[in-house]
Amino acid sequence: GDFSGQLLAYLSLGPIFIIVGFVTLIIFKRELHTISFLGGLMFNEGVNWLIKNVIREPRPCEEAHSTVTTKYGMPSSHSQFMWFFSVYSFLFLYLRMHQTNNARFLDLLWRHVLSICLVTVALLVSYSRVYLLYHTWSQVLYGGVAGSIMAIAWFAFTQEILTPLFPRIAAWPISEFFLIRDTSLIPNILWFEYTVTRAEARNRQRKLGTKLQ
C-alpha cells in the first residue's frame, strides 16, 4: 500500500530502461559517439564493481533484500550509473550539441528543461535507493560523486582521444559493412537529420509530381 515506495521502485529501474534505449538507438542509428557513450556506462559499472569489492561496506539492511546481486553497498551502483548518465548528457548538450549560429531562445530552453529533468531523475533514483533500504546516504552520495567524476573524465577522453579517431574507424571495411557512421563534425545532429530528411522528402515529392503530370 506504499504508493511512494512503488513509484520509487519503478524509478530505480531507470538504468535498465536506459541500457535498453541505448541498444535500440545503436541498432537503428549506428553512430560512433553513441557507442562510445554506452561503452563509458559499461566502464563506469566495472569501476563501481571494483570499488565495492575493495571497500566491502555492507548494505544497511542485508536481510531485507536477499535478491541483490552483491552484498556490498559502497558506492551505490544505481546512483553512480544515473549521475554518470546525467552529467555526461549535460556536457553533451552544452559542449557538443551546439549551433553554429547564435542559439535561439527555444533551443536553449529545451536544453535547460532537459537538463533539469536529467538531474531530477538522478536525484529521485538516488533517493529511492535510501528509501527502499538498499543503501545509506553516504553510499548514494559517493556513488553520485564517482559517477559524475567518471562522466567528466569519459567525456574528455571521448572528445580529445576518440573523436579524432572516429573518421578513421568509420572508414574501416567492417564499419562500412555494418553502416557505422561518424557525425562528430555535425553541430546539431537532430537539426541536421530533420533538414536533410525534409529536403529529400520535398525533392522526391516534386519528382513524383512531375511523373504524374
TrEMBL record:
Pfam families: PAP2
Biological or metabolic pathway of the protein: Protein modification; protein glycosylation
First-level EC class: hydrolase
Cellular component aspect of the GO annotation: endoplasmic reticulum membrane
Compartments it resides in: Endoplasmic reticulum membrane
InterPro entries, per database record: Dolichyldiphosphatase_PAP2 (IPR039667), PAP2/HPO (IPR000326), PAP2/HPO_sf (IPR036938)
Recorded topology in the membrane: Multi-pass membrane protein
TM regions (residue ranges): 7-28, 81-97, 109-128, 140-158
Domain of life: Eukaryota
Catalysis performed (reactions): a di-trans,poly-cis-dolichyl diphosphate + H2O = a di-trans,poly-cis-dolichyl phosphate + phosphate + H(+)
Phosphatidic acid phosphatase type 2/haloperoxidase domain boundaries: 34-155
Gene3D superfamilies: Phosphatidic acid phosphatase type 2/haloperoxidase
One annotated GO molecular function: dolichyldiphosphatase activity
EC number, as in UniProt: 3.6.1.43
A biological process from GO: lipid biosynthetic process
Main location: endoplasmic reticulum
Keywords: Endoplasmic reticulum, Hydrolase, Membrane, Transmembrane, Transmembrane helix
Primary role: Required for efficient N-glycosylation. Necessary for maintaining optimal levels of dolichol-linked oligosaccharides. Hydrolyzes dolichyl pyrophosphate at a very high rate and dolichyl monophosphate at a much lower rate. Does not act on phosphatidate.
Name of the protein in its database record: Dolichyldiphosphatase
Species of provenance: Irena cyanogastra
Lineage of source species: Eukaryota, Metazoa, Chordata, Craniata, Vertebrata
